Description:
415 residues, alpha/beta, six-stranded mixed β-sheet, five-stranded antiparallel β-sheet, 9 helices, globular
Amino acid sequence: MLLAAAWITGAVPGPSQPRAAFARSSKKKSSSKSKPLPAPVAQSLRTYTGPNSTRLVLDLSRSSGFRIEADSAANSFSVIVPKGVKSPSFDPGALDDGAVRSIAADETSEGFRLTVRLVEWNAPRVFGLEGETGQSSRVVVDVIRPGQAERDAAERVRVDRLTANARRIVVVDPGHGGEAVGAVGPKKTHEKDVTLAIAQRLKAELERQPGVQVVLTRSGDYDVPLRERYKVAERYQADVFVSIHCNSSRRRTGSGTEVYFLSMSSASDEASKALADLENNADKVSEGPGQGTDDDLAGILYDLKQTESMQQSSVLAESILGEIEAGRRLEVRGVRQAGFAVLKSPTVPSVLVETAFINNPTEERLLRDPGFQQEMGEQIARGIVAYLSRAPILPRDGRTGNSAPTPPANLGLAR
Length: 415
Ligand SMILES: [Zn+2]
């Protein structure tokens, strides 16, 4: 039996449309005088498999309304773009990843239809995004992976085991991921790929140290909202949170390494502020519209714990930059401060390393080079280890009977 019902309708906002367009229905809203727009063309589909969900991103040639038709009995739903057509090169791919069983694309009398079969029925989360070119638009669909409760339980076990047994816990955060590609180099190198490669090498280096355990905020090519990243560090009561990024400047001559820690008031300079704005922007893609910002944190930032962990953060930043300087490969631009959302843990010393400039052709070449990635991983690891050798070992729940409560949190995309 078909239980199909249109239950989500959206509109992808065009470049000149206000954000509120998300809430509007796709029914006609343009004036009858205006020229008819060309049919929206479904150009491509990208898929990203994460631990808790799979993200599908449909590229359209122009902003367009869309609606969702669900058939929960058949474990499937369709994204329908009225009057939409399919590009000859459109390939839905052959995804079967434990959350999605299959994807098919068709042109029907109504328009373009993308049908997604799920392993198990879960209502998808759908939203529209303005395209990067200012012309195209994207429809983003998040499908929840079955077994969330089991995954949450397994993670709680891991948190308990590590917090009770590890002498030191370092959370390494590969910047960006999935549809949030980060900065792009002249040879089309994506920041998200470089940050993951360096983070994995950094993890391996750190774990050669006895008593050090490393947790990655992502281990593949998928989105993780900024807030979720530092929440991982808090959940594990980590000694260090380090976020890995690549810099980018308007001119191609920018070069060298910067290490940041949080500023609660203003950035150390205009360029730092612009960079933080750029990095924080990633959440527009990761979280979609209408999600909370980190402004609610402002109230809890100004306490003693925060002051203490910010002092530790500055020591950590100096230690990492010192090791990179000793490597003598890159210019060292200094330790700076700015309002990076990912550094806003009030309790965990946190830094962000802008390893090198991906839009500088020379440094892009380095960033792509596995030898350089390894070198950078080793240098950051040495900086962290030097810091840890001097930093106090703080009590953790389950280790010394410290009773500070840690609310269980969920790393899933569903909120
Ligand atoms: Zn970045």
